[in-house]
Write a structure and sequence with these properties.
CATH topology of the largest domain in chain A: Molybdenum Cofactor Biosythetic Enzyme, Chain A
Protein name (chains A, B): Molybdopterin molybdenumtransferase
Strand content of chain A: 25-35%
InterPro entries (chains A, B): MoaB/Mog-like_dom_sf, MoaB/Mog_dom, MoeA-like, MoeA_C_domain_IV, MoeA_C_domain_IV_sf, MoeA_linker/N, MoeA_linker/N_sf
Oligomer: homodimer
Distance between the termini of chain A: 37 Å
Largest interface: A-B, 102 and 102 residues
Mean pLDDT of chain A: 92
Shape of chain A: elongated
Function (chains A, B): Catalyzes the insertion of molybdate into adenylated molybdopterin with the concomitant release of AMP.
Pfam families (chains A, B): MoCF_biosynth, MoeA_C, MoeA_N
CATH class of the largest domain in chain A: Alpha Beta
Cofactor (chains A, B): Mg(2+)
Number of strands of chain A: 28
Chain lengths: ~400, ~400
């Protein structure tokens, strides 16, 4: 029996980071296909947005100094010498004592430095208005380059594109986007008790759950999953299957094998395959302890527990960040929700605990987390839960009422 | 000038719900395509999971009563009369004074009612073990049906499928899933100042942002978006474009038209099209007030503000819930994060305010929200932000340090 090399989650992440292969394959895709994709390069604006001073109100473009001192009882009178048309260049100039009518979004004509809202004007005749409230230079304007200025990095490499990011890219005229290719992830299940979901059950056999949860998790993380099905529980079958999956993927997840022998087979197979090989065998977390991490000739292999809850949690902690950022270990979901746990929970120090919880909102807006009880082999507990609460390895547990980090599903 | 019919967000949702068309088109898809799809029907388990009592430990299946009183100094001795093989039916029976070896995940043989962990046994010879700690009936077992019991509704209609839900469906043998068809959403932009992102800018013109942010938001909500491009800013062009888009979609979003006349054109066009027509014209929120909602012969139309930030926020509040639940108005994102705002923010009562914020984590774990300043016409403010904080319409504002709900992007 070999010695387990048990690491904390942080140590496991660090050792993976040291040996992490360079995965940065790029491709260029149309902007409309960019949602949730990860930028491969910084995006720099080649022009100002907007490209001109732009009115934010319906009103009149003026020289602010012409309005100084204006009041309702003593308006400043200016001549209306032009009109800005939406979408057209406003040539101006607006001279002293002059104003141009301007719509919201219209271009400020040269000479003018502010917009007076139509509400603060009164029309004397078609050629003259009275202004009843002074404007300061810059009033009611979006300045040229106020949204984006030329040369600014508007989005950083490794950023995952959200709807507003697509909008910003459209604004700066970027219609083809350099993104990272999705990480290819092969998924293998082991365990002689497993049958495929479309097979009838029989005594002693259960259906393969992990292939499907992991497939969903890989997709959610932005990876490209391939299922290799249920692999027979012996060294040679697993070795052949793993070699095949490593050939076609950048990461391979092997889950299960809850029978006695199997737990070590994955590690033994990995040791025959390439360098640096096994990085850890066991993580100081609950659930999920019997997990394996390895890098084999530039590919990552995780051996995940057979229990569906444990496999999901270890995936989220270790595999997801690698897929989401295609290599730099920075997780995509950056802020947990803070909720008050509703019962005392014991936990051992030196171990990160993850507790399935459902959330409830109290009348005062507070969010509380109720632990979902049940063994880590029960997928129904993950289905009931809204997220997992984290009890850090520095703590011996949490007391009812204490705030904990909850990572939502 | 027509009278604005300004509603609160809640009133707008209610009036939409009253007139909401029935959208529940179903389709059946393979399980592996189910991630993020919405169930069309309750899923009921047709069998127990697991289908047999299952060991959670490596050890021995026994009759618990045979272990009562066992201690390290006075073990209970039992005969090992069989071995459970992984994935095979265990016929037993395990009689009084007998034990079967059993692996984790193995089927409990008839006659036995508990498993003793191998750690609490000592092997005398191949046929006899000593048990050093008593077991209670049910110890170290997952009972038949403990994960899922026959006849239980395991997932409800309208539930959006997460990775663990795919796992549960696999467990109960559901490989074809009845889901709602994605809501088809047509997206139109109006505004004579707009040009497409692949066009060069010129003074007075800006690129269309809203088509792209809304396209991303519709996709994110699980809808199927189609862009109809930039529509000329007049009654007849908009009417023809809207009729075309209504024909091909279940929902149409018209954004923009920030020029004076345009703001009313959308409403006027809608009034010529069908029943019940315009439901509200203006919502008591900031930003996003000049928004329109309508139902036209069984299709939903939203007129969204031209400002990108406003359009995104109104989409999230009103359109997203309709797309996500395909009709029942129940939003998909159910829990906001609670964060302490870092400055005093004034807000008018009677109006829901939404504040772009960035989040920071303090040393003690607290999450604080810093307001992102900037006009609602600036898409860069949405790009900087991590989410939006909600100041409810009952409040006059929030004070620095107060906890607010933040909806993460």
């Amino acid at each position: 029996m070999e010695l387990f090399n048990v690491l904390t989650v942080q140590q496991a992440r660090s050792v993976l980071a040291v040996h992490l292969p360079v995965w940065h394959k790029e491709e260029t895709i149309p902007l409309l296909q960019g949602l949730n994709r990860i930028l491969a390069q910084d995006i720099t604006a080649k022009e100002d947005v907007p490209g001109f001073h732009r009115s934010t109100m319906d009103g009149y473009a003026v020289r602010a100094r012409d309005t100084f001192g204006a009041t309702e009882s003593l308006p400043s009178y200016v001549d209306v010498t032009g009109e800005v048309l939406m979408g057209e260049e406003a040539h101006g100039p607006v001279g002293a004592g002059q104003a141009w009518a301007i719509p919201t979004g219209g271009m400020l004509p040269p000479g003018a430095d502010a917009v007076v809202m139509v509400e603060y004007t009164e029309e004397l005749d078609k050629r003259t208005i009275g202004i009843t409230k002074p404007a300061a230079p810059g009033d009611n304007l979006v300045r040229r380059g106020e949204d984006v200025s030329t040369g600014a990095v508007v989005l950083n490499a490794k950023h995952r594109l959200r709807p507003q990011d697509l909008g910003l890219l459209a604004a700066v005229g970027v219609t083809e986007v350099p993104v990272l290719k999705p990480v290819k992830v092969g998924i293998l299940s082991t365990g002689n008790e497993l049958i495929a979901p479309d097979q009838p059950t029989s005594p002693g056999r259960v259906r393969d759950i992990n292939s499907y949860t992991l497939y969903g998790q890989v997709l959610q993380a932005g990876g490209s999953p391939t299922l290799y099905g249920i692999i027979e529980d012996n060294f040679e079958s697993l070795r052949q299957a793993l070699i095949g999956a490593l050939h076609e993927n950048e990461m391979v997840l092997i889950s299960g094998g809850s029978s006695v022998g199997t737990r070590d087979v994955t590690a033994k197979v990995i040791e025959t395959l390439g360098n640096p090989g096994l990085l850890f065998h066991g993580i100081a977390i609950k659930p999920g302890k019997p997990s394996i991490g390895a890098v084999v000739d530039g590919k990552v292999v995780f051996g995940l527990p057979g229990h569906p809850v444990s496999a999901m949690i270890v995936f989220d902690l270790l595999a997801r960040p690698l897929i989401e950022s295609s290599g730099d270990g920075q997780p995509g979901r950056s802020f947990p929700l803070r909720a008050a746990i509703t019962r005392n929970i014991h936990s051992a120090t030196g171990r990160d605990d993850f507790l399935r919880v459902t959330l409830r909102r109290l009348e005062d807006g507070t969010i509380v987390a109720d632990p979902v009880l049940g063994k880590s082999g029960l997928i129904s507990t993950m289905v009931k839960a809204d997220g997992v609460a984290h009890i850090p390895l520095t703590k011996e547990g949490v007391e009812a009422g204490e705030l904990v980090d909850v990572w939502l599903f």
